[in-house]
Amino acid sequence: MKSIFKITILALVLVSFASCQKNSRPNYEFMPNMYESVGYEAYQESDAFANGIEAQLPAEGSISRGHIPMDIDGTNDGYLLAKETLKSPLDSTQVDYSRGGPLYVIYCGICHGNKGDGAGNLVKREKLLGVPSYADVGRAITEGSIYHTVYYGKNAMGSYANQLNEEERWQVVAYVLQLKADLEK
């Protein structure tokens, strides 16, 4: 009998708490700024910084997450230096043509052609002219020169450093060298 009485009292307490809930008005929030942060305009005035605006430049010498800077400049001298000295960090077991091939087709094939013959869709439609084949005489490309060109771009070709990470760039370089070897046979 005593346990039925305790269960009844407990049920009445729980029902009374549930009946006090009022959905027509919001409940109290503890530290609401944790849930609904205050939005700031990037270029509004601020007393927190010396120059008086919210937006600040990144700290000097900082590097974006996932970005590995290249030690060679994007100049013609840097291109020649890369052509002579830059070597692939991938060994023969890490080179994967099944990965480099699709990346090449996506990013390079539109201009250079899927076979590296310089006859991509943009060249066929005469949107770009003068894209050479990898097998052209005097086209002495090396893995360093290809990587430098993919990283910085060259002539009408833009940089693909933002689209491809370092490992993917080296996979594309290996695939381009394979295409060059196939064309020269």
Automatic annotation (TrEMBL):
<keyword id="KW-0349">Heme</keyword>
<keyword id="KW-0408">Iron</keyword>
<protein>
    <submittedName>
        <fullName>Cytochrome c</fullName>
    </submittedName>
</protein>
<keyword id="KW-0732">Signal</keyword>
<dbReference type="Pfam" id="PF13442">
    <property type="entry name" value="Cytochrome_CBB3"/>
</dbReference>
<feature type="domain" description="Cytochrome c">
    <location>
        <begin position="95"/>
        <end position="180"/>
    </location>
</feature>
<dbReference type="InterPro" id="IPR036909">
    <property type="entry name" value="Cyt_c-like_dom_sf"/>
</dbReference>
<dbReference type="InterPro" id="IPR009056">
    <property type="entry name" value="Cyt_c-like_dom"/>
</dbReference>
<keyword id="KW-0479">Metal-binding</keyword>
<feature type="signal peptide">
    <location>
        <begin position="1"/>
        <end position="18"/>
    </location>
</feature>
